[in-house]
Amino acid sequence: MGQKPGGDAAATLTRVAEAEIGRDLRQQVQALLQASFPGYPSRSYFKLPPHFRYLAMTGDALAGQMGVELRVIRVGRHVVRTFGISDLCVRTSERSPWAALVEADRGGSRSSVKTRAIRLCRGCPT
User: Fold this and answer.
1) How many angstroms separate the CA atoms of 19 and 51, rounded?
2) Would the N or C end of the chain have less CB density within 10 A of its end CB?
3) The whole model's pTM is what?
4) What letter does residue 107 receive in the DSSP assignment?
5) Do the beta carbons of residue 6 and residue 14 sit within 8 Å?
6) CA quadruple 22, 28, 32, 35: dihedral positive or negative?
7) What is residue 96's predicted lDDT score, i.e. its pLDDT?
8) Which CATH architecture describes the domain 12-97?
9) Where are the domains of the chain?
């Protein structure tokens, strides 16, 4: 864990498979989701659990999370595997200094559009 200018601890971003999230962290995810989305169910997912999550941690505390779901969709005659983002949220006290950058890469055809998260960090260098 590094330090950002000004002395605050920088967040670390980790990709974790849903099945590998322990009880304590799952409770933090659930609390963050319920704080971010009024009426969110009493669990760490809405309808189905995501396949994996990106978790932004400041020390042992969850600062933000993004669920990622594998989807199979039909585009015309083509069946395409893609990822969808679900329940992206950041703790209220961390929202203003956070930056989330998403890059879309369009290949030769409409079915080859890929979107990927580039950076989700507090105090990211510009």
Assistant:
1) 8
2) C
3) 0.67
4) -
5) no
6) positive
7) 58
8) 3-Layer(aba) Sandwich (3.40)
9) 12-97
